[in-house]
Amino acid sequence: GELIVAVDVDVLFEGRHNTASASLGHASAAGHVGMEFQLSRSIKFRAGVDGSGLSGGLGLRIPGMNWFGTSVIPGLDYAFVNDKAFGALHRIGISLEF
Q: What is the pTM of this model?
């Protein structure tokens, strides 16, 4: 397996003082930390945390498919996000890599 750790900060100038991790005047900042563990070429597990709470997810890929003579990798992603403003959210994404 392979483990990837990521850290990033969003700096916004939108007056989001109530939802930001830090604010100074018109600017606000929110930090995010996450990791992805790739079990195989087809399965990835994800987890993260930010100012809204914990999140987790799963990514599935089916490599090696050919459609109309082009190599295509269909994917399905699921994420659970515990958001302060909206509560528990479930997100599903479908992708095609070619």
A: 0.74
